[in-house]
Amino acid sequence: MQHTMMLNTGAPMPLVGFGTYLIKEPEVCRSSVLTALKAGYRLIDTAQFYGNEEAVGQAIRESGVPREKLFITTKLWHTDAGDNKTRPAFEASLKRLGLDYVDLYLIHHPFGDVYGAWRVMEHLYHEGRARAIGLSNFYPDRLMDLILHFDVVPAVDQLETHIYHQRLDARELMARHKVQLMAWGPFSQGKTDLLNNTTLGKIASRHGKTPAQVALRFLVQQGITVIPKSDNEHRIRENIDLFDFALSDDDLAALQALDTKKSAGLTHDDPANVSRIVAL
Ligand SMILES: NC(=O)c1ccc[n+]([C@@H]2O[C@H](COP(=O)([O-])OP(=O)(O)OC[C@H]3O[C@@H](n4cnc5c(N)ncnc54)[C@H](OP(=O)(O)O)[C@@H]3O)[C@@H](O)[C@H]2O)c1
Question: Which of 18, 20, 21 to mutate to test the pocket of ligand 1 (most atoms within 8 A of CB)?
Fold first, then answer.
Protein backbone atom coordinates (compact mmCIF):
# COMPACT_ATOMS: atom_id res chain seq x y z
CA MET A 1 0.00 0.00 0.00
CA GLN A 2 1.22 3.52 -0.87
CA HIS A 3 2.27 5.59 2.11
CA THR A 4 1.44 8.79 0.27
CA MET A 5 -1.51 10.09 -1.70
CA MET A 6 -1.64 12.64 -4.51
CA LEU A 7 -3.14 16.05 -3.81
CA ASN A 8 -5.21 17.89 -6.44
CA THR A 9 -2.08 20.01 -6.98
CA GLY A 10 -0.23 16.93 -8.25
CA ALA A 11 2.05 16.86 -5.21
CA PRO A 12 2.34 13.77 -3.00
CA MET A 13 1.40 14.02 0.67
CA PRO A 14 2.14 11.38 3.34
CA LEU A 15 -0.88 9.49 4.68
CA VAL A 16 0.51 9.61 8.22
CA GLY A 17 1.68 12.83 9.78
CA PHE A 18 2.55 14.13 13.21
CA GLY A 19 0.21 16.47 15.11
CA THR A 20 1.57 19.08 17.50
CA TYR A 21 -1.50 20.63 19.12
CA LEU A 22 -0.99 21.27 22.84
CA ILE A 23 2.72 20.46 22.69
CA LYS A 24 3.37 23.98 23.87
CA GLU A 25 6.50 23.63 25.95
CA PRO A 26 9.24 24.41 23.39
CA GLU A 27 11.67 21.73 24.52
CA VAL A 28 8.98 19.02 24.58
CA CYS A 29 7.81 20.11 21.12
CA ARG A 30 11.34 20.19 19.70
CA SER A 31 12.20 16.75 21.03
CA SER A 32 8.83 15.20 20.08
CA VAL A 33 9.05 16.48 16.49
CA LEU A 34 12.67 15.34 16.30
CA THR A 35 11.65 11.88 17.55
CA ALA A 36 8.86 11.82 14.98
CA LEU A 37 11.21 12.75 12.14
CA LYS A 38 13.67 10.06 13.26
CA ALA A 39 10.80 7.55 13.38
CA GLY A 40 10.01 8.29 9.73
CA TYR A 41 7.25 10.91 9.85
CA ARG A 42 7.63 13.47 7.09
CA LEU A 43 4.38 15.41 7.50
CA ILE A 44 4.33 17.76 10.49
CA ASP A 45 1.14 19.64 11.36
CA THR A 46 1.46 22.89 13.28
CA ALA A 47 -0.43 26.20 13.43
CA GLN A 48 0.08 29.85 14.23
CA PHE A 49 -2.34 29.29 17.15
CA TYR A 50 -0.33 26.39 18.64
CA GLY A 51 2.53 28.74 19.55
CA ASN A 52 5.08 26.07 18.63
CA GLU A 53 6.16 26.92 15.08
CA GLU A 54 9.63 27.95 16.28
CA ALA A 55 10.17 24.66 18.10
CA VAL A 56 8.94 22.74 15.05
CA GLY A 57 11.39 24.69 12.89
CA GLN A 58 14.24 23.94 15.28
CA ALA A 59 13.48 20.21 15.17
CA ILE A 60 13.33 20.28 11.37
CA ARG A 61 16.78 21.89 11.17
CA GLU A 62 18.26 19.50 13.75
CA SER A 63 16.82 16.45 12.02
CA GLY A 64 18.94 16.93 8.93
CA VAL A 65 16.06 15.62 6.79
CA PRO A 66 16.29 17.43 3.43
CA ARG A 67 13.59 20.08 3.07
CA GLU A 68 12.19 18.56 -0.12
CA LYS A 69 11.47 15.29 1.75
CA LEU A 70 9.30 17.09 4.31
CA PHE A 71 5.67 18.12 4.18
CA ILE A 72 5.06 21.01 6.55
CA THR A 73 1.58 22.29 7.27
CA THR A 74 0.66 25.39 9.21
CA LYS A 75 -2.57 27.32 9.67
CA LEU A 76 -3.87 30.87 9.62
CA TRP A 77 -5.74 32.04 12.73
CA HIS A 78 -9.01 33.90 12.12
CA THR A 79 -7.74 37.17 13.61
CA ASP A 80 -5.40 37.36 10.61
CA ALA A 81 -7.93 36.44 7.94
CA GLY A 82 -8.30 39.24 5.40
CA ASP A 83 -6.82 40.92 2.33
CA ASN A 84 -4.32 42.99 4.29
CA LYS A 85 -3.65 40.64 7.17
CA THR A 86 -3.10 37.17 5.76
CA ARG A 87 0.20 37.75 3.96
CA PRO A 88 1.96 39.25 7.01
CA ALA A 89 0.61 36.38 9.15
CA PHE A 90 1.90 33.85 6.61
CA GLU A 91 5.33 35.52 6.48
CA ALA A 92 5.46 35.51 10.29
CA SER A 93 4.69 31.77 10.36
CA LEU A 94 7.42 31.10 7.79
CA LYS A 95 9.88 33.16 9.82
CA ARG A 96 9.08 31.26 13.02
CA LEU A 97 9.44 27.96 11.16
CA GLY A 98 12.67 29.12 9.51
CA LEU A 99 11.35 28.05 6.10
CA ASP A 100 10.90 29.82 2.80
CA TYR A 101 7.78 27.87 1.84
CA VAL A 102 5.24 25.55 3.41
CA ASP A 103 3.78 22.49 1.75
CA LEU A 104 0.27 23.26 2.93
CA TYR A 105 -1.31 26.41 4.38
CA LEU A 106 -4.77 26.07 5.92
CA ILE A 107 -7.45 28.47 7.13
CA HIS A 108 -7.79 27.18 10.70
CA HIS A 109 -11.51 27.90 11.21
CA PRO A 110 -14.33 29.08 8.93
CA PHE A 111 -14.60 32.36 10.85
CA GLY A 112 -13.76 35.99 10.08
CA ASP A 113 -12.85 37.18 6.60
CA VAL A 114 -12.18 33.81 5.02
CA TYR A 115 -12.82 35.21 1.53
CA GLY A 116 -10.11 37.84 1.93
CA ALA A 117 -7.82 35.16 3.37
CA TRP A 118 -8.44 32.79 0.48
CA ARG A 119 -7.77 35.59 -2.09
CA VAL A 120 -4.33 36.08 -0.50
CA MET A 121 -3.74 32.34 -0.21
CA GLU A 122 -4.44 31.87 -3.91
CA HIS A 123 -1.61 34.36 -4.58
CA LEU A 124 0.70 32.55 -2.14
CA TYR A 125 -0.10 29.31 -3.94
CA HIS A 126 0.60 30.75 -7.42
CA GLU A 127 3.87 32.22 -6.08
CA GLY A 128 4.92 28.80 -4.76
CA ARG A 129 5.25 30.07 -1.19
CA ALA A 130 2.45 27.70 -0.14
CA ARG A 131 2.75 24.61 -2.32
CA ALA A 132 -0.87 23.78 -1.52
CA ILE A 133 -3.66 25.67 0.24
CA GLY A 134 -6.61 24.30 2.10
CA LEU A 135 -9.13 24.55 4.88
CA SER A 136 -9.78 23.24 8.31
CA ASN A 137 -13.12 22.80 10.05
CA PHE A 138 -15.05 23.79 6.94
CA TYR A 139 -18.11 21.56 6.84
CA PRO A 140 -19.61 20.56 3.46
CA ASP A 141 -21.73 23.73 3.04
CA ARG A 142 -18.80 26.08 3.73
CA LEU A 143 -16.46 23.98 1.59
CA MET A 144 -18.91 24.05 -1.32
CA ASP A 145 -19.31 27.82 -1.02
CA LEU A 146 -15.56 28.34 -1.25
CA ILE A 147 -15.21 25.95 -4.19
CA LEU A 148 -17.97 27.81 -6.06
CA HIS A 149 -16.53 31.28 -5.57
CA PHE A 150 -12.82 30.81 -6.24
CA ASP A 151 -10.45 29.38 -8.85
CA VAL A 152 -8.26 27.23 -6.61
CA VAL A 153 -10.07 24.24 -5.16
CA PRO A 154 -8.77 23.57 -1.63
CA ALA A 155 -6.29 20.68 -1.63
CA VAL A 156 -7.20 19.56 1.88
CA ASP A 157 -9.93 19.99 4.47
CA GLN A 158 -8.81 19.08 7.98
CA LEU A 159 -11.75 17.84 10.06
CA GLU A 160 -12.21 16.02 13.33
CA THR A 161 -12.46 12.45 12.05
CA HIS A 162 -12.25 9.13 13.88
CA ILE A 163 -14.11 5.85 14.23
CA TYR A 164 -16.87 7.55 16.20
CA HIS A 165 -17.16 10.41 13.67
CA GLN A 166 -16.47 9.11 10.18
CA ARG A 167 -17.72 12.05 8.08
CA LEU A 168 -19.34 10.08 5.26
CA ASP A 169 -21.26 13.09 3.90
CA ALA A 170 -18.19 15.33 3.85
CA ARG A 171 -16.13 12.55 2.28
CA GLU A 172 -18.58 12.12 -0.57
CA LEU A 173 -18.40 15.83 -1.45
CA MET A 174 -14.65 15.96 -0.99
CA ALA A 175 -14.10 12.96 -3.25
CA ARG A 176 -16.19 14.64 -5.96
CA HIS A 177 -13.99 17.75 -5.82
CA LYS A 178 -10.67 15.99 -5.12
CA VAL A 179 -10.28 17.60 -1.70
CA GLN A 180 -8.22 15.39 0.60
CA LEU A 181 -9.56 14.70 4.08
CA MET A 182 -6.95 15.08 6.82
CA ALA A 183 -8.25 13.65 10.08
CA TRP A 184 -7.54 15.69 13.18
CA GLY A 185 -8.20 14.06 16.53
CA PRO A 186 -7.95 10.52 15.13
CA PHE A 187 -8.18 9.21 18.73
CA SER A 188 -11.05 11.68 19.44
CA GLN A 189 -8.42 13.61 21.41
CA GLY A 190 -8.83 11.13 24.27
CA LYS A 191 -12.31 12.62 24.93
CA THR A 192 -14.20 9.34 24.39
CA ASP A 193 -13.67 5.67 25.29
CA LEU A 194 -12.62 5.03 21.68
CA LEU A 195 -9.30 3.31 22.42
CA ASN A 196 -11.07 1.02 24.93
CA ASN A 197 -13.84 0.06 22.53
CA THR A 198 -14.38 -3.72 22.63
CA THR A 199 -14.79 -4.20 18.88
CA LEU A 200 -11.65 -2.20 18.21
CA GLY A 201 -9.80 -4.17 20.90
CA LYS A 202 -10.79 -7.54 19.43
CA ILE A 203 -9.71 -6.54 15.91
CA ALA A 204 -6.43 -5.19 17.29
CA SER A 205 -5.66 -8.45 19.16
CA ARG A 206 -6.42 -10.50 16.07
CA HIS A 207 -3.86 -8.49 14.08
CA GLY A 208 -1.31 -8.33 16.91
CA LYS A 209 -1.55 -4.53 16.84
CA THR A 210 -2.75 -1.93 19.35
CA PRO A 211 -6.22 -0.32 19.32
CA ALA A 212 -4.52 2.98 18.44
CA GLN A 213 -2.86 1.41 15.40
CA VAL A 214 -6.15 -0.09 14.20
CA ALA A 215 -7.93 3.26 14.77
CA LEU A 216 -5.36 4.93 12.51
CA ARG A 217 -5.15 2.10 9.99
CA PHE A 218 -8.96 2.23 9.63
CA LEU A 219 -8.68 5.79 8.34
CA VAL A 220 -5.49 5.40 6.32
CA GLN A 221 -6.78 2.29 4.57
CA GLN A 222 -9.71 4.39 3.34
CA GLY A 223 -7.32 7.00 1.93
CA ILE A 224 -7.69 9.46 4.81
CA THR A 225 -4.59 11.24 6.09
CA VAL A 226 -4.06 11.03 9.86
CA ILE A 227 -2.01 13.33 12.09
CA PRO A 228 -1.95 11.73 15.57
CA LYS A 229 -0.26 13.68 18.34
CA SER A 230 1.92 12.16 21.02
CA ASP A 231 4.79 13.42 23.11
CA ASN A 232 5.74 9.90 24.14
CA GLU A 233 8.51 8.23 22.12
CA HIS A 234 6.97 4.76 22.25
CA ARG A 235 3.56 6.02 21.09
CA ILE A 236 5.10 8.27 18.43
CA ARG A 237 6.72 5.16 16.91
CA GLU A 238 3.59 3.06 17.40
CA ASN A 239 1.42 5.57 15.54
CA ILE A 240 3.38 5.34 12.29
CA ASP A 241 3.82 1.57 12.37
CA LEU A 242 0.68 0.92 10.33
CA PHE A 243 1.85 -0.63 7.12
CA ASP A 244 2.58 -4.26 8.03
CA PHE A 245 -1.06 -5.30 8.29
CA ALA A 246 -4.39 -4.72 6.57
CA LEU A 247 -7.93 -4.70 7.89
CA SER A 248 -10.28 -7.17 6.23
CA ASP A 249 -13.62 -6.16 4.73
CA ASP A 250 -15.28 -7.61 7.85
CA ASP A 251 -12.99 -5.55 10.12
CA LEU A 252 -13.80 -2.41 8.15
CA ALA A 253 -17.55 -3.12 8.29
CA ALA A 254 -17.43 -3.73 12.06
CA LEU A 255 -15.60 -0.44 12.61
CA GLN A 256 -17.82 1.45 10.16
CA ALA A 257 -20.80 0.37 12.28
CA LEU A 258 -19.35 2.31 15.25
CA ASP A 259 -19.92 5.69 13.60
CA THR A 260 -22.00 7.94 15.88
CA LYS A 261 -21.65 10.91 13.47
CA LYS A 262 -20.97 13.04 16.54
CA SER A 263 -18.07 15.26 17.41
CA ALA A 264 -16.17 14.57 20.62
CA GLY A 265 -15.17 18.20 20.87
CA LEU A 266 -16.30 21.57 19.60
CA THR A 267 -18.41 21.58 16.45
CA HIS A 268 -18.03 24.61 14.20
CA ASP A 269 -21.68 25.14 13.36
CA ASP A 270 -22.98 25.79 16.86
CA PRO A 271 -23.21 29.54 17.60
CA ALA A 272 -22.03 29.04 21.19
CA ASN A 273 -18.93 27.23 19.96
CA VAL A 274 -18.26 29.89 17.32
CA SER A 275 -18.25 32.50 20.12
CA ARG A 276 -16.00 30.29 22.25
CA ILE A 277 -13.46 29.70 19.48
CA VAL A 278 -13.42 33.33 18.31
CA ALA A 279 -12.76 34.41 21.91
CA LEU A 280 -9.76 32.07 22.34
N1 LIG B 1 -7.55 21.93 12.64
C2 LIG B 1 -7.96 21.87 13.88
O3 LIG B 1 -8.85 22.62 14.32
C4 LIG B 1 -7.34 20.87 14.78
C5 LIG B 1 -7.92 20.60 16.03
C6 LIG B 1 -7.32 19.65 16.84
C7 LIG B 1 -6.18 19.01 16.42
N8 LIG B 1 -5.61 19.29 15.20
C9 LIG B 1 -4.37 18.61 14.72
O10 LIG B 1 -4.59 17.22 14.79
C11 LIG B 1 -3.60 16.61 15.63
C12 LIG B 1 -4.17 15.39 16.34
O13 LIG B 1 -5.27 15.72 17.13
P14 LIG B 1 -5.19 15.87 18.72
O15 LIG B 1 -3.77 16.04 19.15
O16 LIG B 1 -6.12 16.94 19.12
O17 LIG B 1 -5.79 14.50 19.27
P18 LIG B 1 -5.44 12.93 19.03
O19 LIG B 1 -4.25 12.79 18.17
O20 LIG B 1 -6.73 12.29 18.65
O21 LIG B 1 -5.15 12.44 20.50
C22 LIG B 1 -4.02 12.81 21.20
C23 LIG B 1 -4.10 12.08 22.54
O24 LIG B 1 -3.96 10.67 22.31
C25 LIG B 1 -2.87 10.17 23.08
N26 LIG B 1 -2.19 9.13 22.27
C27 LIG B 1 -1.39 9.32 21.22
N28 LIG B 1 -0.97 8.16 20.71
C29 LIG B 1 -1.52 7.19 21.47
C30 LIG B 1 -1.47 5.78 21.44
N31 LIG B 1 -0.75 5.13 20.53
N32 LIG B 1 -2.16 5.08 22.40
C33 LIG B 1 -2.88 5.74 23.33
N34 LIG B 1 -2.99 7.09 23.40
C35 LIG B 1 -2.31 7.81 22.47
C36 LIG B 1 -1.98 11.36 23.35
O37 LIG B 1 -1.27 11.19 24.57
P38 LIG B 1 0.36 11.20 24.62
O39 LIG B 1 0.81 12.49 24.00
O40 LIG B 1 0.64 11.10 26.07
O41 LIG B 1 0.82 9.99 23.85
C42 LIG B 1 -2.99 12.49 23.47
O43 LIG B 1 -3.53 12.53 24.78
C44 LIG B 1 -3.23 17.77 16.58
O45 LIG B 1 -2.06 17.52 17.29
C46 LIG B 1 -3.17 18.91 15.60
O47 LIG B 1 -1.97 18.89 14.86
C48 LIG B 1 -6.19 20.21 14.38
Answer: 21
